[in-house]
Design brief:
The protein has helices spanning 2-30, 34-38, 46-55, 64-78, 90-124, 130-144, 147-165, 185-221, 224-231, 236-266, 268-273, 279-288, 292-320. By secondary structure, it is mostly helical. The protein has 2 domains: 2-78, no CATH class; 90-320, MetI-like (MetI-like fold). Helix 6 (130-144) packs across helix 8, helix 9 runs antiparallel to helix 10 and helix 12 (279-288) runs antiparallel to helix 13 (292-320). The longest helix has 37 residues, at 185-221.
Length: 327
């Protein structure tokens, strides 16, 4: 297993390096940080503008390959991802926002995935029954509604509940708010702000994974090895759990690994709607702000997340599928 994982990591690292390097070339040629200085009123001295850009390795008057080499050396040797056009350490900002995104997506993603897998497996065993049809209808409805609409609907419902009860049970602006003086007030405050985003992400992920797991489970239930196990006298519940579900979980493990990895930068709407300043929001901000180094850092982090997802997917498939050889 160790040698197999090491080979996969090496392959993914090469792909990650190529992706990040190409992103740097694209961002450095398409984004124009000089405009941020030239559009200032009153106008700034062109010499000062050039000095600021050169000090941050952002001047378009410096050859592109020279800028790339300087940036690459700083990243590899010092783990320095550069500065934003108007100042500010990119590495520190990314490190702060990673934890914001992690707090936002972890609980909702895990709950949604577990609920979705269990719901999909259960409805597959009850194909075309009222419970299956109602679950399918609810899942398709959730999947057809944009995530920002779901977030808005939850905010409206929370506002009405807060107004009806006279107590602010739900908070949905930012990560934290006013804290009490009692023990555990900080934790309770963060938990209040996480309730609505967690509900939204749970609904979306549960709907998504329930559809996937139901279809995979139906294929597994109709396969020859399950029918053979039943013909040999194996109880239906044991055949479903031991044979069908395990086989159906193999592709789900791949979906799960990649979906969790990409959620760090894919939950942009949730971050904006609930005012969580995480990586998804930062990715939009860096592009709009002509921030070359910030854009590359976001892509590098996204690529690293996909790399981790790919490795977890390989490990999950190797564990679940006995046909996979690790040599």
């Amino acid at each position: 297993m160790g040698a197999y994982v090491a080979r996969r990591i090496l392959n993914y690292l090469v792909l990650l390096f190529l992706a990040v390097s190409l992103t740097y070339f694209l961002a450095a040629t398409q984004l124009e940080p000089r405009q941020l200085y030239e559009l200032v009123n009153p106008p700034l001295d062109p010499v000062s503008i050039e000095q600021n850009l050169r000090s941050r390795n952002l001047s378009d008057e410096v050859p592109l390959l020279e800028r790339y080499w300087t940036w690459l050396q700083n990243v590899v040797l010092h783990w320095d991802w550069g500065e934003a056009p108007r100042g500010g350490d990119i590495g520190g900002e990314v490190g702060r926002r990673i934890w914001v995104s992690l707090r936002l997506i972890t609980l909702g993603s895990l709950l949604g995935t577990v609920i979705g897998v269990l719901l999909g497996a259960w409805t597959a065993t009850r194909q075309y029954k009222p419970s299956d049809r109602s679950t399918t209808a609810a899942s398709l409805l959730i999947l057809s509604v944009p995530s920002f609409v779901i977030a808005s609907a939850l905010q409206v419902a929370a506002t009405k509940i807060n107004g009806a009860t006279g107590v602010r049970l739900f908070e949905f602006v930012g990560e934290t708010g006013s804290r009490g003086s009692y023990a555990g007030a900080a934790f309770a405050d963060r938990l209040q702000h996480l309730v609505l985003p967690t509900i939204a992400l749970t609904l979306i992920n549960a709907a998504f994974f329930s559809r996937i797991q139901r279809n995979l489970m139906l294929d597994a239930l109709g396969s020859d090895f399950v029918r053979t196990a039943r013909a040999k006298g194996l109880r239906r519940s044991k055949a479903v759990m031991k044979h069908a579900l395990r086989t159906a979980l193999i592709p789900t493990g791949t979906y799960f690994a990649f979906s969790i990895a990409t959620l760090f930068t894919g939950a942009t709407f949730m971050e904006i709607m609930f005012s969580f300043h995480g990586m998804g929001e930062y990715g939009v901000t860096t592009i709009l702000g002509q921030d070359v180094h910030g854009t590359v850092a976001v892509v590098a982090f996204s690529g690293a997340c996909v790399l981790v997802g790919a490795i977890l997917s390989d490990i999950a498939v190797a564990i679940l599928d006995p046909r996979v050889r690790l040599s």
